[in-house]
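This week, think about what follows.
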Amino acid sequence: MIVLDTNSLLTILLMFLRVFSFVFMVPLFGTFFLPAFVRPYLSVAIAFSLFLFLDIKPLEINSALQFTGLALQEVLFGFLAGFFLRLLFDTVFVAGEVIAVNTGLGFLMMFLPQQPQTTVLAGFSTLIASTLFLSLGGAEAVYIGLAQSFKSTPIGSFELFSLNGKVFLMLFYKSFSMGVKIALPVLIAAMLTNIILAVINRFIPQINVFMVGLPLQVMVGLTVLMLSIPVIGLVLISYMREYMMNFLRFVGAG
């Protein structure tokens, strides 16, 4: 029989704050595709299951000031862990944005006023990345990582100054550069298309390249993207596996 006293409830609340700040940062749960009420309920379920699964001993909390300090530590740890994992999805998001802007697909935003200020291809890329992430067992790895984080970094033991800021800078740089590399085939095709159109406009000025260029860029960009999707998928799978190992090491599960 489970008895939940005041200290147990406060401990579960602290676990909830860590899990909720993590869930809030990860695009897999925090995007506009999911209703807002899903995240709190999901965080409560995860926190309560971790409390029972890990058999965590309730903390002795004697004052509101002590609880506030612990709560800030848990929110900060969950935020940084979620930010670490968010950079994985931002890689694909950057690739989708770059492809959409350079192929003319960014104009589709005008036909979806209810969508946030992101291109349709960027949102679609995020969904594809989420599907790959789930198919590779990412959800299970995240749950195990959160569980191990409460063992490697117990509640109230996180210290911000113990982190190396260069790690996040390198992750941000690698995320952005990897997104550009994924979009590189489409970028090269778009650049060659613009060069060809410029040459045609130079030798045949009667042709209105502005009327011909946009449909041609969209057609060439989509064709190259469809042909390169198998290679992009293999690259993303390898990148996600390596990144998940780094994430597990970051939260103390590696």
